[in-house]
Amino acid sequence: MTTTTRRTEVLAGISTFLATMYIIVVNPTILSQAGLPFSGVLTATVLLAFFCSLMMGLYARNPIVVAPGMGLNAFFTFTAVKGMGIAPETALGAVFWAGIIFLALSIFNIRSALVRIIPLPLRYAVSAGIGLFITLIGFQNAHFIIDNPATLVGVARLNDPVVLTFIIGLLLTSVLVVRRVTGAIIIGIVLTTLLAWPIGRYWGDASAVNYGQKTLVNLVSVIATPDFSLIGKLDLWGSLRWSVAPVIFAFAFTDLFDSLSTFVGVAEAGDLMDETGEPRNLRQSMLTDAVATTLAGVLGTSSGTAYIESAVGIAQGGRTGLTAIVAGCCFLPFLFLSPLLSAIPAIATAPAVVLVGAFMMTPVVRINWDKLDDAIPAFLALVLIPFSYSITQGLIWGFLSWTVIKLAVGKYSEVPAGLLIVDAFCVVSLVAEG
């Protein structure tokens, strides 16, 4: 494993926090649409990120932040609550029971066995696919990549001050990274934040707010009182109704493969592997992820999961649990200081997130692109993660195409029995989605 220092780990932890801190505001924004109080979800988000990132650092000893998962919160709000008419308290109960399932799978090490049946080419592809995915997220946060009715996606005009600020920040951060300046990513975030200040100062607050950005001039207060009203508000027994079973299954399945792909992808990109070539301390990491989902239901938020943006800190040099501990501790003050989040706009962290895509492309060279029965499933997994905006979809089609192609060409030994079971769950998931 690459050597590291305490100073490097602290810098990496701060970098990871700055790349993931958006969840403090984004998660309550989404879940409040399900009828949960914004302030209550914000408190739950901070507490979950703090406790479970500490567990990841102290118990699993991995530099990975744990927080409420993006995508899972959207499923909670728009599918479970608004789409199926389930009460938000019942949906929180479903999150809890999904976590209990995870705990059982983790205690008996079944989830670790699931990782070991993922073919190596798919692991490499998933790592690169996650890199492309978070790069897309970075471009979207900067409003550089935008919706285009004619071509589906497009590039924003360069006369927009937000886009120009992002481009300058991206180039500055890239130069710092290439020159191997210590703390390059943090310096880039700070410089881009300073560059973002004139967006509100000279172009008016509306220019910033319309893009979901917050600039330094928007700070009007510092102290915010924590809201613990959602703790213990889950409906445990109501969520055990048969009609809620599909929601529990969906939470379990989606979180399962999101976390699996995150651990595999981050481990491959950051060389966080053990002597057997598997992700380091996998069982402990899986157990931490399971606790995060269970605790999320109790605290009052959607499922917790490992964050792919942890790759930002790993790229900064984070290799031990101290990175996760530092990042987790950075969340805690925002129980009281959440307005300070407006000092760092999304365009300031976007360059760092975009650059992580370059760092995570390294495993692609390990795929034998001349061996088409390996290359085609790997390619599908790689491109479908960003194109479908879903890590789970990339995995599903990577698994299914691998199995079909290998069986069709007679390479039965390359399709383990465990993979067939996973394929069955993939088919069930696709059918359930309609």
UniProtKB/TrEMBL annotation:
InterPro entries: Azg-like, NCS2
Record has Membrane as a keyword: yes
Source organism superkingdom: Bacteria
Single GO cellular component term: plasma membrane
Keyword annotations of the record: Membrane, Transmembrane, Transmembrane helix, Transport
Record-level Gene Ontology MF annotations: purine nucleobase transmembrane transporter activity
UniProt protein name: NCS2 family permease
